[in-house]
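User:
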Amino acid sequence: MIDCDFNIEEEIEAIRTFKETGKGLVSRELLLPSPPREIRQKLGLTRQAFAALLGVSKRTLDHWEQGKRQPQGPAIALLRIAENNPEVFISLPTAH
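Assistant: Predicted structure:
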């Protein structure tokens, strides 16, 4: 899971502190989502439906699920949404 708490005032204050002292910036680690097959199965979706919501071909999804390829960029973001906010993910419009 990723920490979605983001307070802009805290971030601005951290930048000010860093500028003044050279200390205080905190790095945040973004965790990768669970494997696509696991997310899809938790959502109870077919491969075709899951691929459509992700905006990828069924073949691409098959490659991810078989470990032949790894999701990149925006696909990782969508997988995080699917895993952490399934109701939002399911409501996404599809291109088909």
